[in-house]
């Protein structure tokens, strides 16, 4: 693997190698000295054309924990505002001899373009491109799901896939790269995916996706899935009215306190996941976000370990430690 552009192209063995490596990287985060020398002398460029908190900070933390040098680039305040192109921006950063470029861009396919045009000679890691993919988010979500199952069963995480697990993904599928990356990775690893969304927030062509679509959240939750993943309503990408009101969205598609109570009454072991940032009171209530079922902060911690694993494997080509 030279680049990490999408989960659709990841094989089961590649995904499990990343997840197993991430488990070991997580142990580094528990030590008093949270550092490995693996990428000493290597340079990682974080190229962010869209806002980010979790992904940008965790890629930076991951690179630093592996002793790499890090250059952070944010389009805001850069010469992009003067009209500099993606090609010229990337080549300017390559002139600083980057070994890896982490890119988030509003245009679907921008990371593929960097990886395949020959503009740069570095490993490219997709940190989210338009509505297309967010592969490291899906990898950290799957790492969290493996831990969730291991905690319940007393089983192992190492070497395991998600065979037999059921994940319900709810909300703004139309604009969500998280939904797409999770669908591909979860199904590659043997999990079953159910999407729940208002019809207006589903893209065309979902009949070709390896996922079931339902419109009733209570019906999907009554199946006691292993996890329910709430997607952020992406107001910044909405240039039309996709639902009548926020109150109505929360009532029909939100994880309300009433739905949380129903899970508790049913004795379900369903984990509550959200990639962040959360719109509290819209797709997820504070009661659900802060409940013992919530894995939101565990997902953030796992994000550092997954990104360490991806950088390590891409830059050293070594999955044996
Ligand atoms: N989940 C996620 O991508 O969060 P950020 O936009 O804060 O990076």
TrEMBL record:
Record: residues binding carbamoyl phosphate: 54-55, 104, 134, 137, 276-277
Pathways involved: Pyrimidine metabolism; UMP biosynthesis via de novo pathway; (S)-dihydroorotate from bicarbonate: step 2/3
Family: Belongs to the aspartate/ornithine carbamoyltransferase superfamily. ATCase family.
Example GO BP: amino acid metabolic process
GO molecular function: amino acid binding; aspartate carbamoyltransferase activity
Pfam families attached to this UniProt entry: OTCace, OTCace_N
Key word DNA repair present: no
PANTHER family (alphabetical): ASPARTATE CARBAMOYLTRANSFERASE, ORNITHINE CARBAMOYLTRANSFERASE, MITOCHONDRIAL
Any one GO cellular component localisation term in the record: cytosol
InterPro entries: Asp/Orn_carbamoyltranf_P-bd, Asp/Orn_carbamoylTrfase, Asp/Orn_carbamoylTrfase_sf, Asp_carbamoyltransf, Asp_carbamoyltransf_Asp/Orn-bd
Subunit structure: Heterododecamer (2C3:3R2) of six catalytic PyrB chains organized as two trimers (C3), and six regulatory PyrI chains organized as three dimers (R2).
Source organism: Kocuria coralli
Domain Aspartate/ornithine carbamoyltransferase carbamoyl-P binding, residue spans: 2-147
Function statement: Catalyzes the condensation of carbamoyl phosphate and aspartate to form carbamoyl aspartate and inorganic phosphate, the committed step in the de novo pyrimidine nucleotide biosynthesis pathway.
Domain (Aspartate/ornithine carbamoyltransferase Asp/Orn-binding) ranges: 163-314
Catalytic activity line of the entry: carbamoyl phosphate + L-aspartate = N-carbamoyl-L-aspartate + phosphate + H(+)
Highest classification ranks of the organism: Bacteria, Bacillati, Actinomycetota, Actinomycetes, Micrococcales
Binding residues for L-aspartate: 82, 177, 232
Alphabetical list of PROSITE patterns matching this protein: CARBAMOYLTRANSFERASE
Top-level lineage group: Bacteria
Name of the protein in its database record: Aspartate carbamoyltransferase
